[in-house]
Automatic annotation (TrEMBL):
It comes from the Eukaryota. This is Synaptotagmin-5-like.
Length: 50
């Protein structure tokens, strides 16, 4: 049995710039199928003790 279905490469620049990203990305190496993504960027402040 093979667990690997395929892969995809996505840069997160668009998510960082727009704040939200939704798309269906086809899987490389698969006969058929796509990965449905809905990504949302919420920045969180980093507090440092001085």
């Amino acid at each position: 049995m093979q667990d690997y279905m395929g892969g995809c490469i996505l840069t997160l620049t668009r998510v960082l710039m727009e704040g939200e990203y939704s798309d269906a990305i086809p899987l490389d190496g698969a006969k058929s199928g796509a990965l449905n993504l809905h990504l949302k960027w919420t920045p969180q402040p980093i507090y440092r003790d001085s």
